[in-house]
Automatic annotation (TrEMBL):
Residues 1-21 have a biased composition (Polar residues). Residues 1-23 are annotated as: Disordered. This is Allene oxide synthase. One of its GO terms (biological process) is fatty acid metabolic process. Heme binds at C445. Pfam families: p450. Its cofactor is heme. It comes from the Eukaryota. InterPro entries: Cyt_P450 (IPR001128), Cyt_P450_E_grp-IV (IPR002403), Cyt_P450_sf (IPR036396).
């Protein structure tokens, strides 16, 4: 069946520059912000406690009959000076967030608040810089070059890290009858990223075999707690709200952990830091950026994505497992091993990875401030956004746009097979279209191709070893808790 966007009765294909077609009426942006202080607090309590994240957006979308509306985004007082945003919830209006000529991405990585730069050695790391700031091109260009140089290490490095994960998974399953995938995935992801950039096993550093992920987790929590709810039954909501969403937890409490993390990278990533100095980046600035890229961007992303990948593939059922295993084993046999070329030939595996990135984008929020008055459109109307207004895209709803994707709420393993692969331009997980490339002039994730490759590789390694499996799904602070209950070895 063809997807709605490709059928002749579908909405008009949006032009790639988001220029508003004249036939759509200009509509005032519905919604509002309420009274100062009380409005943002009400929205924050709705968001975390009375409605929950998804319902918060869906109920307003319904109430205003619009995928574009005004609301406050948490955390609000006293962490964010201005919590007022224009919220975008469809695949078309969302694209304005990728237009760096109209949108400023300075200090908006975490939304309407920014953690203290004490967490990053006093520097604003690359992810907080707008492309108009010269340091963005210097740092991003540097990392793009380093990633290109490390290309040949991606597949062997990941295969090595993941083989340790499988060994532990099997041991835990046979000892305890279950295994926490998230914990093993954290160790595997940190191990891979550290070895990639430092060419050393983290166990050979003061971090030890499991210290790295634990320290990064704490450091991430201290930066991201304003966006989290612990959901603890015995802690009253108002108390949690006060502790997590009102003030920034001080860096001093995790200073010694960060120092240990930083010095492990500083002492092990010599060659990369030498390269950075050669192009004029200060050694300590390069290292704080490396810790951020490895810990926040890469490890943080993999911490959310891989459990989601396993969860969706598990719930897709045994028939999909059989088809994935058959495809993967046939291609590996034909190609004589696991290579980039082999991964490229695995159509179902590719489609499954894109579908996971569509249905559960690992980084759900994107922000940007209007550099000028901007006319945007959704499927039905045009809207005028004024200069300096904050624009916010909630990706998990935007990539379930029923005018673009058929059966958008469901996981469809074949969704991006053959002809339909063109729909990946509406997959936005990397802060850009899946058909675009990260450059020094945009804010798209420079790890985009690596992440897609590793996700495919995870499925390949898994289905070379196992026929099928089952898991139990729970909820974590950011993402899903995945517990393996059974694993059937390849026959
Ligand atoms: C599953 C893993 C990953 C996910 C989900 C992810 C996601 C993202 C997203 C959504 C952004 C844009 C943030 C924004 O401005 O709104 C981003 C930016 C960035 N990512 Fe990734 N990323 C992942 C892995 C990586 C890896 C492996 C690297 C490098 C090795 C990396 C390096 C960066 C950097 C440096 C930026 C800032 C880009 C800029 O300032 O232009 N990420 N990532």
């Amino acid at each position: 069946m063809s997807s709605p966007i490709s059928s002749s009765t579908a909405v008009k294909q949006p032009s790639s520059d988001n220029s508003p077609p004249s036939e759509l009426a200009l509509r005032e942006i519905p919604g509002g912000y309420g009274f100062p202080f009380f409005g943002p607090i009400k929205d924050r309590l709705d968001y975390y406690y009375s409605q929950g994240e998804v319902e918060f957006f869906r109920s307003r979308m319904k109430k205003f009959n619009s995928t574009v509306f005004r609301c406050n985004m948490p955390p609000g007082p006293f962490l964010a000076r201005n919590p007022q945003v224009i919220c975008l919830l469809d695949a078309i209006s969302f694209e304005i967030l990728f237009d760096n000529s109209k949108i400023e991405k300075k200090n908006v990585l975490d939304g309407t608040y920014m953690p203290s730069t004490a967490f990053t050695g006093g520097y604003r790391t690359c992810a907080y810089l707008d492309p108009s700031e010269p340091n963005h091109a210097v740092l991003k260009g540097f990392f793009l070059t380093q990633l290109a140089k490390l290309h040949s290490k991606f597949i062997p490095g990941f295969r090595q890290s993941i083989s340790g994960l499988f060994t532990s998974l099997e041991e835990e399953l046979s000892d305890k009858g279950k295994s926490n995938f998230n914990a093993l995935n954290d160790i595997m992801s940190f191990d891979f990223v550290f070895r990639l950039f430092c060419d050393k096993n983290p166990s050979e550093t003061p971090l030890g075999p499991t210290g790295g992920p634990k320290m990064v987790d704490k450091w991430l929590f201290f930066q991201l707690h304003p966006l989290m709810s612990l959901g603890l039954k015995y802690v009253p909501n108002l108390l949690e709200d006060l502790v997590l969403h009102t003030f920034q937890l001080p860096f001093g409490l995790i200073k010694s952990d960060y120092k240990k993390l930083y010095s492990s990278f500083f002492n092990s990533a010599g060659p990369i830091l030498d390269e950075a100095e050669k192009i004029g980046i200060k050694r300590d600035e390069a290292c704080h950026n490396l810790v951020f890229l490895a810990g926040f961007n890469a490890y943080g992303g993999m911490k959310a994505l891989f459990p989601a990948l396993i969860k969706w593939v598990a719930t897709a059922g045994e028939d999909i497992h059989r088809r994935l295993a058959a495809e993967i084993r046939a291609v590996v046999k034909e190609e004589g091993g696991v290579s980039t070329a082999a991964l490229e030939k695995m159509c179902l595996t590719k489609s499954v990875v894109y579908e996971v990135l569509r249905i559960e984008p690992p980084v759900p929020y994107q922000y940007g401030k209007a550099k000028q008055d901007i006319l945007i459109k959704n499927h039905d109307s045009n809207f005028l956004i004024k200069k300096d207004e904050m624009i916010f895209g909630y990706q998990p709803i935007a990539t379930k746009d029923s005018k673009v994707f058929e059966d958008p709420e469901n996981f469809v393993a074949d969704r991006f097979l053959s002809e339909r692969e063109k729909l990946i331009k509406y997959v936005y997980w990397s802060n850009g279209r899946e058909t675009d490339d990260p450059t020094v002039d945009n804010k798209q994730c420079p790890g985009k191709d690596l992440v897609v490759l590793l996700s495919r590789l995870m499925l390949v390694e898994f289905f070379l070893k196992y026929d099928t499996f089952s898991v139990e799904i729970g909820k974590l602070l950011l993402g899903s808790l995945v517990t393996f209950k059974s694993l059937t070895k390849a026959t």
